From TrEMBL:
Keywords (A to Z) from UniProt: Nucleotidyltransferase, Transferase
InterPro entries referenced in this protein's UniProt entry, alphabetically: GlmU-like, NTP_transferase_dom, Nucleotide-diphossugar_trans
Pfam families: NTP_transferase
Species in which this protein is naturally found: Flavobacterium hydrophilum
Official protein name in the record: Nucleotidyltransferase
Coiled-coil region(s): none
Ranges where the Nucleotidyl transferase domain occurs: 35-242
Gene3D superfamilies: Spore Coat Polysaccharide Biosynthesis Protein SpsA, Chain A
Length: 290
């Protein structure tokens, strides 16, 4: 099993900064949503950020080395998780920071694949090891994170049952759908699937599976595809699913979809803050680092 978890936290959070469509947020919550990276918004019962809960679950899953990819203005992360650039001790986790720099001529980061590429350039030891990658604004269970660590497949991702997600149906319908073969290896990721054909993507269990950006990668194999990732023609970003699919063109049946059926709390917009706070209050009355 590997010990490395890379957390993507350098995005622009543009949807979170849009005006709220709910009225039950405090001025402080609105201010944090407008100013902070999503993973640092204080949604815990004690005002601690969502990232705390992700790190608790990562520790329970057995990860030891945490690499947080932050933006150029991401110093607030260091006030929470360690002032040094690398090797901070946070509740027994070894926390290091990688910076996703914005290329000249752009006003926002260049996407998740660019973030991971910059991170492995700053920490080249990852290119000789296995590592997991996840978002900072999703709360993955310790069981799902452990499943990535224990998978024997060179690459893997958590293949979530779409019907278990506790989101509005309109939001769920926008999720990209994973096409798997009979052995649960990834064949394709279908963006914005048409409702008329989405049933054809059911897996061996009869479930429609979606990715929530929880991956395991073999660093050495992934690196050239990260380095040469093309830009998405519509979103003008370099994206991890593109990297993975390009890898699979040359090395098919090397990315296992690990089936999970559970909700994944998500902080995308201000409307999510209330729901995530309620989830944490119910499921994490105490933040236990042991």
């Amino acid at each position: 099993m590997h010990d490395n978890l890379v957390i993507l936290a350098g995005g622009a959070s543009s949807r979170m900064k849009k005006p709220a469509e709910v009225s039950n947020l405090s001025e402080e919550e609105i201010a944090q949503a407008n100013e902070r990276s999503k993973g640092l918004i204080g949604v815990g019962p004690n005002g601690r950020p969502l990232m705390d809960y992700l790190l608790v679950n990562a520790k329970k899953a057995g990860y030891k080395n945490i690499y947080i990819i932050i933006g150029e203005q991401g110093d607030l992360f260091k006030s929470f998780y360690g002032s040094k650039d690398k090797d901070n001790d946070f509740h027994g986790l070894n926390v290091s920071f990688a910076v996703q720099y914005i290329p000249e001529g752009r006003v926002k980061p260049f996407g998740t694949a660019d973030a991971l590429f910059q991170a492995v350039e700053q920490y080249p030891e990852l290119n000789t090891q296995f590592y997991s990658v996840c978002n900072s604004d999703n709360l993955y269970s310790s069981e799902a994170l452990y499943a990535l660590r224990e998978s024997n497949s060179p690459n893997a991702f958590i293949s979530y049952d779409r019907d278990a997600m506790e989101f509005p149906s309109e939001r769920i319908s926008r999720f990209a759908v994973a096409e798997l073969n009979k052995d649960n290896f990834l064949l394709d990721i279908v963006e914005k699937p048409d409702a008329a054909v989405v049933e054809s993507f059911k897996d061996a269990e009869g479930k429609i599976r979606v990715s929530m950006n929880a991956f395991k990668f073999k660093g050495e194999a992934l690196y050239p595809y990260l380095k040469n990732c093309p830009v998405h023609p519509e979103r003008d970003e370099k994206e991890l699913p593109t990297v993975l699919l390009n890898l699979l063109q040359d090395f098919p049946n090397t990315a296992l979809g690990i089936p999970f059926s559970e909700h994944v709390p998500d902080l995308t917009a201000k409307e999510d803050i209330v729901e995530v706070k309620a989830y944490l209050k119910k499921h994490f009355p105490v933040l236990d680092w042991n």
